[in-house]
Each structure stands twice: as structure tokens, then as C-alpha cells.
Amino acid sequence: MNYVRPDNRQFDELRPWNIQVGVLDYAEGSALVESGKTKVICAATIEDRVPSFLKDQNRGWVTAEYSMLPRSTLTRSPRERGGKIGGRTMEIQRLIGRSLRCVTDLDALGECTITVDCDVIQADGGTRVASITGAWVALHEALKRLAQEGRLDGDPMLDSVAAISVGIVQGTELLDLNYDEDSSAEVDMNIVMTGRGKLVEVQATAEGDPFSLTAMNRLIRLGQRGINAVRDLQKKAVQS
Fold it and tell me: Which of this chain's residues are annotated to bind phosphate (predicted)?
């Protein structure tokens, strides 16, 4: 435990997190998530249509798109144009969509599609976990709008979902990695978990030597503690 974090946090300490709702006037649901220097705007849009594979089934759909603004990083990144998106972007937006659908009753939603756009305006590690966490808040606000308009027979929101990053840097297990830690980590892991403590997804990679199942379980427990704290912020945001 001799490793000293760049921002002097404890190994199990989150960066400063903040979640604001209603940050956009026109979206049916919106949230700004700040995790340290990482900032993501999430906007939910309701459309009275469904994908062709759900037509006439009286079921809804929840999906997501993800992007990073060109100057969200230290150097400018080109925009992904013309419908051509990179593999990383595709992976992340699919992850966000899966995470939201895991806690949504699509039958109770009715025939509509909710798309949550997650745009990273500043990146310092953990953009995908911040996006998932904020996307759920934006989705919650959009469903609240549908309920207020009398368009829902029941509550499609089955549970909450949030995410956090963990990893091993210089042999030390850490919670909520920033970019400097993530870029030098021996193990990098992203954990997505519901409010009831069920896992949606665990993405774990060893950058050098393999790591043990025991270490993996410790990291998941560490991540669960962080997710519990982030979930409290979600609850406060949607109740404000």
C-alpha cells in the first residue's frame, strides 16, 4: 500500500461526484454527471415508434448513443462522422443500452423508444461508468414525464443501475480510477450493478501479468462499495 494516488485520495475513496437533473430545456430527461474532472451530459428522448423487430408487439425499447466531444481530451480528437463510429464507441453505447434495459420493463413502456444520448464534454477516466450512471437518471426523468402525461399503465422502472471503475496500480487495488491511474493500471475493471446488488456486466482486463480470481472478487467488492455511494447520489438527484 505504498502507492500514493495523484490526487492524494485513499485507495477506496471516490473522486468528487455530482449529479444534476434537468440541465437541458428540450430533452424529456437530462442529467449532468461529474466524476472528478470527467463530465458527461445525458439526454433522454421519447419517440412514438419502435424498431422494426418490435412492431405490433406493444413493447417499447430503450437504447443509447455515446460520443466524446473533440476537445474533451488533452488533444483534439476528430469527430466520428457520417454514421461511421469506432469500435470503442460502439462497445460503450451498447453497454449503456444493455444496462438500461436490464432495469426497464419494456412491456410496461408501451410502443415508444427512449434514446439516451451520452456526450462526454470532458474526459479524465471513467467516461463509460459516468455515462451509465447519468443515463439512468435521464431515463428516470423521461419515464416520470410519460407518467405525468398519463401514457403509462404501470411503472417500467424495475430498479436502478450504476457503474464504477476499479483497478490495480503498482500492486494496489483502487476505486474510481482517473486517467493517469487507468493508463498505467496493471488491471482495469468496470463494474455495472443494479440497486439490488445484481451484476449487469463486469469488464476486466490484465494489461500484463494475469490476476487471480481472489483479486477479482476483492475488486468487485471494492466496486460495490463505490456503486452504493454513487447510487445514493442518483436517488438524491431524482428526488430533487
Answer: 88, 126-128
